[in-house]
Write a structure and sequence with these properties.
Elements (H helix, E strand, L loop, with lengths): L1 H8 L3 E2 L1 E4 L15 E2 L2 E5 L2 E5 L4 E5 L5 E5 L7 E7 L2 E6 L6 E5 L17 H6 L5 H6 L9 H11 L12 H20 L42 E5 L2 E5 L6
Helix pairs in contact: 4-5
This protein binds a DNA duplex through helix 4.
Length: 248
DNA sequence: TCATCCCTGTGG
DNA sequence: CCACAGGGATGA
């Protein structure tokens, strides 16, 4: 998503911030607009607009989308970042997303999942939590959510409830490979659009990784690898999908 | 380490 | 109608 927005906003002047949801509060109070966007980047699931002395921090949570458009798109627009050539529209029907302007971005985030994962074995050894919860704990490793946790575990052949500190060396190696493999593949597919009105890229692109999902949302359907019905349980309050045969 | 809550929309 | 939804902060 950040890659899609980059050509539209990087180096461009942010003219105005229009807030349509009082929950978001005032955002431009500490800013001298217009201000050039020096860079747009990502850390974990946070989107960061580098405005020089300040940083605009967005988090889309469950239902948020960032749409680049000339005019207002459909849906519940909570925020607009106005640029000369168009706007970044923060569409967010559930209103769980967040936006703030800060002097320095801070968040309790673990390392990026696409960097060197040499630290992983030692970190896993220190935790007794179920592996799926470990993967989704942003303080342990940043950026992995419910869909990709499920898919990473399937590709690793590890059951979601396995304690993090119980993995064999071989399983850790599989996990180490599966984390970047699943994420890179999903990014190459432009993400995962499950149904209409859900995740889209900044130009409305559908994320076709939904076609590649092995377990997520496939409760009761046959495993693509062994035919065993995919099962759904609840872990940490979240739907958890896995193949009881392929994942031990 | 957990359930709960924040919100609203959709699908069964 | 109820269950559930891609996330995360909070308080027990």
């Amino acid at each position: 998503m950040v890659r899609g927005l980059r050509p539209h906003v990087e180096g461009e002047g942010l003219r105005a911030i229009e807030v349509y949801d009082p929950k978001l509060g005032d955002l431009d109070g500490a800013l001298h607009l217009p201000v050039p966007v020096k860079a747009i980047s990502r850390r974990g699931k946070y989107v960061l607009f580098d405005l020089g002395v300040r940083t605009l921090v967005l988090h889309l949570r469950m239902s948020g989308r960032l749409v680049w458009a000339k005019r207002k798109p459909g849906g519940r627009v909570r925020l607009v970042l106005r640029f000369p050539e168009g706007g970044v529209y923060f569409v967010d029907p559930r209103r769980l997303g967040t936006a703030e302007v800060v002097s320095e971005f801070t968040a309790d985030l673990g390392p990026e999942p696409l960097g060197d994962l040499a630290w992983l074995p030692a970190a896993l050894q220190q935790s007794r939590t179920p592996l799926k919860l470990w993967l989704m704990d942003q303080r342990k490793i940043a950026g992995i959510g419910n869909i990709y946790a499920a898919e990473i575990l399937f590709r690793s052949g590890i059951a979601p409830v396995r304690r993090a500190d119980s993995l064999t060396r071989g399983e850790v190696r599989k996990l180490q490979k599966a984390i970047p493999a699943v994420l890179e593949e999903a990014i190459a597919c432009c993400g995962t659009t499950l149904t209409d009105g859900q995740y889209r890229g900044p130009q409305g692109e559908i994320g076709v990784f939904a076609c590649e999902l092995a377990v997520y949302g496939r409760d009761g359907e046959p495993c693509r690898q062994c035919g065993t019905p995919i099962r759904r349980t609840v872990l940490g309050g979240r739907g958890t999908f896995f193949c009881p045969r392929c994942q031990r």
